[in-house]
Amino acid sequence: MIKTILKRIWKPFLILLIVAAAAGALWVWSIKPLISKLKGDVILPEDIVPVEKGTVVVAFKGQGTVMAKQDIKVTSKPSGILQKIYVKEGDFVKKGQKLALLKPGRNEFEDFKPITIYAPADGTVVKCHADSSDFDKDLSERNLSLPRPGTFLEGSYENTENATCFLRLVNTDTLLIPVYVTESQVLQLKKGMPAEIEVISLGADAEPLTGTITYVSTQIEKSGDRWSDSKGFLILVELPRRDKNILLGVNTNVSVPIQKREDVLTIPANALFEKNGKSYVFKYQGKNKAQELEITTGLASDTTVEVTQGLQEGDQVLTELPYGESW
Q1: In CATH terms, is domain 60-68+172-259 a member of 3.40.50.20?
Q2: pLDDT digits (tens, 9 = 90+) for 27-50
Q3: Cβ proximity of 93 and 122 under 8 Å
Q4: Overall fold of domain 45-56+261-318
């Protein structure tokens, strides 16, 4: 009985909620401002902001993906059959530690002395990436595990790209974020500059991380598999992990301060109006009146503008055009 009643009333109830929400939005955004204007309240309180001392920062902004600074693909020089594996995924190994035993040759009947594969660096044992032939397969069919004994490994003495990846040694104590920038941007960036890093998945309210630019390329580069498929001038931002739970592969926003001025007179960027190459504000006079005023500006960011002439601390300006003004 109750289910039948609920089935009958849920649609009308939902429609009622939608109509109420629409009516509320219409009141807030249309009817209420119109009534205010008809009554003579042509300047809304929320459109009035103070002129105050502050800091203006102009920053380069880009995006990049977190990667391990060290990510070494371990391969064998001779081709051969894997006989023993001394490590498992997740193990931390030291440089020179035994990883596996390989019997060179194409089959068990070739009489070559087994050789040991040693760790080329300290790091955590991680599975190899899927190769390009695996990309069209379902995840369950991809080969993402460490090779088993009896597996044939293709070796290479010169080009490891042609050799079978046995495992990877990753060190996540220090992370890297590669970012590709334009010609005009790269001229403003230098090694040693601090960078503020925001992990996008954590949201804008998360505490930003601090890194440092450690590499700035001097020519346009097309990225390889390690970085991405981007093209431009590559910069690398180094980020010490310091026990923070930052996952490899997450996307980040990177901000590098280029210019900064502190304790200067500022207004919000949306309070500045430009016309014919000149800068103006609408200075609030009180009693629903505002004066159009030409000002001189200095450094400007996306959110804040420095005012060098025309206003004083404590003045008030509008972030919206007064009613009846066209621009």
Answers
A1: no
A2: 555 555 555 554 445 688 889 999
A3: yes
A4: 2.40.420
